[in-house]
Amino acid sequence: MTSRIGPSHRTRAPSGRADATPAPGKRALALLRPGLASGVALLLAGCVGFSGDGGMAGVVSGSSASIGKDVVRISDDQSAAVAKERVDRLLRKPLTADAAVQVALLNNRGLQAAFNQLGVAEAQMVAASLPPNPRFGISKLSGRFEVEIERQVVGNLLALATLPARAEIARDQFGIARRQTVEAVLKLAADTRRQYWRAVAANAEVAFYQQAKATATATTELFRRLGESGGVNKIDQAREFAFDAELTVQLAEARRRQGEERERLVRQLGLWGADARFRLPSDLPATPRPQTAKAIEAEALRQRIDMQIARDELAMLARSLGMTQAVRFINDAELLGRRTYDRGRDITEHGPVRRESARSTTLELEIEIPIYDFGQSKVAMAEQTYMQAANRLAEKAVNIRSEAREAYASYRASHDIVRQYQNNVLPLRKIIQDESLLQYNGMLTDVTELLTDARNRILSNVAAINARRDFWIAHTNFRHALIGGGVGSSGGAMVGPTPAAAAGH
């Protein structure tokens, strides 16, 4: 529907020039012009501008409070040089878990890409907070005796009227993007810490196999000499040689896993070239006393970043639903102002050419009438989207409670398993092997039982290393089950057969 305020008209003075009296359309524009100017001035005064740091202030404060590490966006050569100097300083010493996390936060380019995405979200927020741009047009129609020039300006009234609501929604979306960036920081920190423990555990496993292989090689050489002198029969000698060969294979497999775990850590840290030759400890640290947790479910619901994101999304959708309901009957409304200049000439009966010109002003309001759809589909879609977010928020609350309990139970169980290995399994395996060696030296048993006990002790030591690895990973999972960033799985299945299975070998 088009409604015209101040219809197009022409008034001419006898001299052929336009009348000096303002037309009704001109009077309407003269009355609207001050109001439009003041309205645009108020809108421009309330527009959101770009922040100096691309929205990183909230990311830095949110991340540092959770993990206690520095988060830096690299945006120029100076910040890149400062980050590189700090990374180099951390890599000069054997990496600790905290140092590895800090290197990843400074050097991982995937995280820097997440910071760039936050800058894109800020640009979108600023664009959404600006008034709609008017459209200007000019046209000229000329013939042999007539010329018509038309100038027009069109503005979207609906976009202008809904600007405050749309700007508020855009600010909510930017807040969500900022929390998602914090979540990316926490996820990188958690993944790096888990991978660090896997890489160090692989180092410890290789170190243990190297010690076992050195002992087995010395024993094999002794058996070879005894076999040459007839002190050991051929079957016992073959059993010892087979045991040494098996250890060679297990050491090779351990070194393969060591290389794989290290390269995965290198990717988390974002290193290459000479920087990838950093040093890692050769053994896992001792397990500390287990933490006691009180009200872990409430703490997880309060601190988890993904829960905060879900709440913010629900609030944003509530505002969006309110705006959709408010404009459900209006899909589009545009205000158009047009000025037309006509100049013509015609030849009179007596021969002279008569010239005449006219100017006219038109103000039009165009509104789309919802004949077939009164906004029910838009409102229904907005309502269902809101309810979907509400149900997902409720589901997330249930899952977060369960994840917090599961992570804490796994953490405590992993600690108990490590203590069991350290206090009982490993000491008993050592006693068994020592006694078996004494009995073999006293010719009370054969080499078969000695080798079986040696195999079982090796498997128990490897299992103890993996148990400590799983403890530190469970410790990381429990920590991030409370603050967010993703809860990973345990360290993986135990390498090789269990001691019980090997006993029946």
Q: How do the strands and helices of this protein lay out in sequence?
A:
Elements: E1 2-5, H1 24-45, H2 56-67, H3 77-91, H4 97-107, H5 109-128, E2 135-142, E3 146-156, H6 157-161, H7 163-229, H8 234-269, H9 296-303, H10 305-326, E4 333-347, E5 353-367, H11 376-441, H12 447-483, H13 499-503
Antiparallel strand pairs: 1-5, 2-3, 3-4, 4-5
Helix pairs in contact: 2-7, 3-4, 4-7, 5-7, 7-8, 7-10, 7-12, 8-12, 9-11, 10-11, 11-12
> Mind telling me which CATH architecture of the domain at 286-329 and 378-505 this is?
Up-down Bundle
CATH class of the domain at 286-329 and 378-505: Mainly Alpha
N/C terminus separation: 89 Å
**What is the percent of helical residues?**
55-70%
GO molecular function: efflux transmembrane transporter activity
Protein name: Outer membrane protein TolC
Region (Disordered): 1-24
InterPro entries: MdtP/NodT-like
Description:
The chain is of the alpha+beta class. The chain has a domain at 286-329 and 378-505: Up-down Bundle (Outer membrane efflux proteins (OEP)). It is built from 13 helices and five strands. The protein has helices at residues 24-45, 56-67, 77-91, 97-107, 109-128, 157-161, 163-229, 234-269, 296-303, 305-326, 376-441, 447-483, 499-503, and strands at residues 2-5, 135-142, 146-156, 333-347, 353-367. It has a five-stranded antiparallel beta sheet. A hairpin with a 3-residue loop joins β2 (135-142) and β3. The N and C termini lie far apart (89 Å).
